[in-house]
Fold these 2 entries.
Entry 1:
Amino acid sequence: MKIGVPREMKNNENRVALTPAGVLTLKNAGHEVYIETEAGMGSGFTDDQYADAGATIVPTASDAWNKEMVMKVKEPLPEEYDYFYEGLILFTYLHLAAEPELTKAMIDKKVVGIAYETVQLKNGSLPLLTPMSEVAGRMASQIGAQFLEKSKGGKGILLGGVPGVRRGKVTVIGGGVVGTNAAKIAVGLGADVTIVDLNPERLRELDDIFGSKINTMMSNPLNIAETVKESDLLVGAVLIPGAKAPRLVTEEMVQSMTDGSVIVDVAIDQGGIVATSDRITTHDNPTYEKHGVLHYAVANMPGAVPRTSTIALTNVTVPYALQIANKGYGQACRDNQALRKGINTLNGFVTYEAVADAHQLEHSSVDNLLK
Ligand SMILES: NC(=O)C1=CN([C@@H]2O[C@H](COP(=O)(O)OP(=O)(O)OC[C@H]3O[C@@H](n4cnc5c(N)ncnc54)[C@H](O)[C@@H]3O)[C@@H](O)[C@H]2O)C=CC1
Ligand SMILES: CC(=O)C(=O)O
């Protein structure tokens, strides 16, 4: 199969969909890989390293996009929609529930959209989302701590406090991969950490992992209102796979926070869990203020640490890309149910129910279309 890797276009998105090691793996299996020139530079991989691994370096984005399968990191931007064509296999993060225009473009052009974030194993875990959630979760507390500094617009609190001065309060809503990693760093900084989740089993596991270093809390509107009000830093880390994020933190709850508090809504890529997370921000201009509270809503947080993130991402995506390239997407998805769950659009239909629901579009089952 011919596989193209364009350079990422999102603001400060320095990740790339393949490393030279990934190229070699695909090349050794008999596939041809085309890398847009300088696509790997932001992650520290040169054109020469890709060429040595067997890739063909192509001069323009369109030379990478006109291949049978395109591998990317982030969802295509509107200026990339013109590259779509019927039958193109697009393997990348898509976040379609939060992207009505992209969904429409992929349906209109009959793109085979396989979303990293909805590939799902039998146990419910999301193997192609997990490493980036680990990165974003760890970054969330680090970033929150930074923006709590006075010069950055925060209230001037050191999360760990010092002897004689109380510690900062961190609330993490959603105790999955992002939430656990955010909590690890916040606990490491010495903060007073509360994790809120809807799943009692998960709360038990978190209690086992962290012991008395954190507080756990069942997710309901009263508990959320109470803990948000007291928080210096709030991290949004809820996910319902494929669906738009539920708005669990209301505008009134944000108003109840003290001035200079910080919200890092990591779930912004699925629309965000905070009512006042009404826009996506960029690494260039990452925060805005509403009701005296700083909001950080960057949808590609791992793009800021591209070397770590590219290697972590491609460690997990390449084995799936290899299956698609070796067998074609149809057979690969018939053989691998986890990969089948990644198909969000096919033959001009939305095939992921939560995405169809988010846009009130007709949903067609992958099984009907994958004959
Ligand atoms: N902004 C960015 O750059 C990045 C964003 N993300 C996003 O972060 C979000 C979280 O991802 P993961 O941690 O990997 O998901 P996960 O599936 O590991 O965890 C989600 C957690 O939310 C909990 N949850 C569900 N409904 C809830 C409710 N009503 N109240 C409280 N908890 C609830 C679940 O029980 C689960 O523990 C996703 O939207 C993901 O796409 C991930 C990586 C980077
Ligand atoms: C998961 C995601 O959206 C990211 O890594 O950018």
Entry 2:
Amino acid sequence: MTGDAKTLQAIKFDRDNITLDILDQLLIPYATKYISIESIEDAFQAIKLMQVRGAPAIAIVGAFSIVMETYSNLKKSQEKSRTIDDLVKSIHYLITARPTAVNLSNACLDIEKLILKEFKKEDSVDQHTFDIIYQYSVALYDDDLNNNFKIGDNGLRYITETLKAQNFTGPFSIITICNTGSLATSGHGTALGIIRTVFNKLSKDAGEKFWLDHVYPCETRPYNQGARLTTYELNYEGIPSTLICDSMASSLISTLSKQRKVKNLIAPVKFIIAGADRIVENGDTANKIGTFQLSTIANYFNSNSDKESGIKFIIAAPRTTIDFKTKTGDGIIIEERPSHELTTLNGPVLTNNGVGGKQTVGIATPGIDVWNPAFDVTPHELIDCIVTEDENVFVKNSKGEFNLNV
Ligand SMILES: CSC[C@H]1O[C@H](OP(=O)(O)O)[C@H](O)[C@@H]1O
């Protein structure tokens, strides 16, 4: 379906007719087009191409694709049905689509565990197999949505308590990176979910002593999830925002901290909020490339001002993003993506009467060597708070350690 109806629903799974459609995020914000996912292979390609992206969203689409694969197996009853071993092999293949985000591998391995509890590898895929995977997948979707609203509320509480402790009053701003909203999850979002909740609950007209005045999404080179997706979500919600290049964050913070205007804006940046693709046991966090730099910027401004009046660096993620098997960030595999994502730009031609076909333009010397890691690892030392769906947000103890395993 192609059309201009703005939507934030990244994933559509019809629980009665058993169909799965994903919003093609490579076309956002210029076109709304859903593509059908009917197999694990369809999901692998869509996840690899980043037609769907975002740690929770790729896990949910991955799980639903296994439902679709099993369902189509049952429909082709005349053919020799696949064995459980075949299905498990396909599940392991799906995991390789994007190795850094732990949610996808967690969901796939959970499904493998559930079916191997009930079946032997040589057994045939049957209705019971489908039922097990179906129940798991719809619960994964529903839990993610519920968790995101809890993350929003928990983030609001942390922000409110922080500003009260600082005796802060007036308008404040938030910087965020990549896209961590409805387009990266089952809805509402994680870091952007906190921003949604804070904007709705801490508003000037509600008579609050402090309020969220402005959001600065980083464009998030090279895939531009911020420029394309987060701005689209912020506009959709009517949240005042101004797009910045990733390289502008420190100047933005500095300008506002000196009560100088950014365009006509004066609200100081008080929080940098990012999502996560994998949080390991000590709190080191893999997230979109550029996140680590933002944490060093927050740390600079904190070490050059009274710590308590500085900028808090927040990571927001559901507990499904925590990987207790990996002790420190050194153990995280960082996905490296193709060079053309840095050396070319891909998008529709913008004409006076609308949006034309997709074009690719070169923006670097052809053949230049490129390093294109999709993520970086923010050391836990630079993270002030990890917000999950657990009511108690995670802050470091007096020894500077996170204890996430509670
Ligand atoms: C709630 S989304 C988490 C995480 O996923 C994004 O990566 P990508 O767009 O490459 O899938 C980004 O790192 C977000 O912070």
